[in-house]
Specification:
Number of strands: 16
Distance between the termini: 61 Å
Helix content: 40-55%
Low-confidence stretches: 130-142, 392-419
Structural class: alpha/beta
CATH class of the largest domain: Alpha Beta
Mean pLDDT: 81
Number of helices: 20
Strand order of the largest sheet: 2-1-3-4-5
CATH architecture of the largest domain: 3-Layer(aba) Sandwich
CATH topology of the largest domain: Rossmann fold
Largest sheet: 5 strands, parallel
Number of domains: 4
Oligomer: single chain
Length: 482
């Protein structure tokens, strides 16, 4: 049975109205608080959260209902407001709508109209709660699936973080599921029915990132034939997800910081500012604290974004989830492709569980899609998938190439995950490297040699992909460029 109860704040200077609405709402099982002035209402919001505020436009005490709404929005952007007025005007209704009011009612309040608004508000709240439960539980498509302690901790953190309005910084390796966590936070918030807008800062050229964030006016630059809203404007009332925030240029960081502090954006080539109400969720696989120390990321922006930190564990730290996830992906892709379902043999499940998964969940997902399409028969054996798993060898710090305890090669990057020496002919490693090189070339060609895009598809970071390209002698030919 769905929960349609609301936490309602009634703000009206008339005691009779407060009593009447309180009795009416409590009769339906809602929790009700009251305030006679805008100042007392702001104090009530500071003490506890409310889903809805029914606010009289003509409040006493020097603050109108619209004034209250202007004051409440910056700190309580998730609050749904219903404005009430005895002498409502079109101008007031328009202004209230601009400030995010859900509806505008005129006194005397008609019971039928009040019932309709309550029903809509209750259905909206129930939808948000179902979405919140789904996001945290990982069921409908979000793929936050598993029974490991690491995942259970992450889900609990999402449950605590999602209903708030605080900015969230998600860290974790490439392919670990940072975007899924961001979407879960959005669906678990009171903004669940509003927009979720994503911008991958690593996938947009640096000279275009500001136009994507803030938009532009017609004629702002060559090719700007018409005005375009930026991502921040499009996310108004909802959630803005800035993926790979560590790749944002210092200039763009400065402008983003100003937008966060003022709540205002100005399009490129424009002179007008627009107010935006956006919850920021950012993600990165980089060490932002180290980037701050190196002067590549603004310290003030880092502290602004890192209010509620969340870390997504890599797949190798929740190995008990691997067979469960693999089975889920096999079922999902079999249904999508219209093919018969497949199951992992115990040996195949063990092989997947023991693998290091450098590409994390994204790599597992891609492997299971390939398995559904290419493996014949209902049972997936270890031999069916063994050749598709690329072994990753980690060298101990200070260990030279080729083994031994000599000092590391000065040209080696710390944390290299593969041996750059060529494999010996006729060995299994040579065959695996040959297949890896072919796969890299295929993905690069499909991405038109966009290394950032290819790295994302392969589930590795850009530096690692560049290193592998050097190792295998992969470079763009003149024919490719043409």
């Amino acid at each position: 049975m769905k929960d349609t109860r609301l936490r309602i704040l009634v703000v009206d200077d008339e005691p009779g109205i407060r009593e009447m609405l309180t009795a009416r709402f409590e009769l339906d099982g809602h929790t009700v608080g009251t305030a006679a002035t805008g100042e007392r209402a702001l104090a009530a919001l500071a003490e506890q959260p409310y889903d809805v505020a029914f606010v009289d436009q003509n409040l006493g005490g020097g603050m109108t209902g619209l004034d209250f709404l202007k004051r409440a929005r910056p700190e309580h952007g998730d609050l749904t407001a219903v404005m009430i007025s005895a002498h409502g005007s079109i101008a007031e209704a328009v202004e209230a709508t601009k400030l995010g009011a859900f509806d505008f009612l005129e006194k005397p309040l008609e019971p039928a109209r009040l019932d309709l608004v309550l029903r809509h508000l209750s259905e909206r709240a129930a939808l948000q709660r179902r979405a919140r439960a789904a996001a945290v539980g990982g069921t409908p498509g979000l793929e936050m699936i598993g029974s490991s302690e690491a995942l259970a901790r992450l889900k609990k953190e999402i449950e605590r973080v999602a209903p708030s309005s605080g900015k969230v910084l998600i860290t974790g390796e490439n392919g670990s599921g940072k975007e899924l966590v961001a979407r879960a936070i959005h669906l678990g918030s009171r903004r669940a029915d509003a927009a979720f807008v994503k911008l991958n800062c690593a996938a947009i050229p640096r000279d275009l990132i500001e136009s994507e964030l803030f938009g532009y006016e017609r004629g702002a630059f060559t090719g700007a034939v018409q005005a375009k809203k930026g991502k921040l404007e499009l996310a108004h009332g909802g959630t803005m997800f800035l993926d790979e925030i560590g790749d944002l240029s210092l200039e763009a960081q400065s402008k983003l910081l100003r937008a966060i502090e003022t709540g205002e954006v100005e399009r490129i080539g424009g002179t007008k500012t627009s107010t935006v109400d956006v919850r920021l969720v950012s993600a990165t696989h980089k060490d932002l604290a180290a980037q701050v120390r190196e002067g590549r990321f603004r310290e003030d922006l880092y502290f602004r974004l890192n209010v509620l930190p969340l870390h997504v564990p890599p797949l190798r730290e929740r190995r008990e989830d691997i067979p469960i996830l693999a089975a889920h992906f096999l079922s999902t892709f079999a249904e999508a492709e219209g093919l018969a379902g497949k199951e992992l043999s115990p040996e195949a499940a063990a092989l997947l569980t023991e693998y290091s998964w450098p590409g994390n969940v994204r790599e597992l997902r891609n492997l299971m899609e390939r398995t559904v399409i290419l493996v014949a028969g209902p049972i997936v054996h270890a031999s069916d998938i063994a050749d598709w798993l690329v072994p990753v060898t980690r060298r101990a710090p200070g260990e030279a190439r080729g083994g031994g305890a000599a000092a590391a090669n000065p040209g080696d990057a710390p944390g290299d995950e593969d041996d750059d020496l060529p494999a010996e002919p006729g060995t299994l490693r040579e065959e695996l490297e040959k297949r890896e090189a072919e796969a890299i070339v295929k993905v690069l060609e499909a991405a038109r040699w966009n290394v950032t895009q290819a790295a994302a598809q392969l589930g590795v970071d850009r530096t690692n992909l560049h290193r592998k390209m050097r190792k295998y002698g992969i470079r763009r030919t003149r024919e490719d460029e043409a």
